[in-house]
């Protein structure tokens, strides 16, 4: 496998892995957390959030860099690989501009036993539900990036 093919493979597979992590988190983990008391859920979400950021941010950047590199190296497919890179890296501004308020509120609740008791299970479950749908969208961005990468690879 030459370097260009490896770059393509890394770009599209990391984007698809990232999509799976995001969509799986919303579909599998959040519904379980929504059934627990705030004193359990909020601290677990906080750790889940920190671990997710430590994994997902580097994956998103790596995927976007690989796809952008493929766009640079393959002029005939530049548009598709650029689209893959943009779709995947779009998670970063989406997270910062749309999701961060919910993230910060959940982290704030996690850090205070008084706040956990004050807001209660229903409020935390609602915040988690909001986070889940925003995370589905974030996962969809990575999925689009990965699928466009597959399409570009098949066009070669």
Structural topology:
Elements: H1 3-33, H2 38-73, H3 78-89, H4 91-110, H5 113-155
Helix pairs in contact: 1-2, 1-5, 2-3, 2-4, 2-5, 3-5, 4-5
Question: How would you portray this structure in words?
Answer:
- The structure is a single chain.
- This protein is mainly α and 156 residues long.
- It is 91% helix and 0% strand.
- The protein has 5 helices and no strands.
- Helix 3 runs antiparallel to helix 5 (113-155).
- The protein is elongated and about 60 Å long.
- The mean pLDDT is 95.
Summed up:
The chain has helices spanning 3-33, 38-73, 78-89, 91-110, 113-155.
List keywords for this structure.
single chain; mainly alpha; 5 helices; elongated
Number of helices: 5
Order of H and E elements = HHHHH
Biggest β-sheet: count, sense, barrel? none
Net shape: elongated
Total DSSP E strands: 0
Q: Residue share in helices?
A: over 70%
Mean pLDDT: 95
Which value, in Å, is the CA radius of gyration?
18 Å
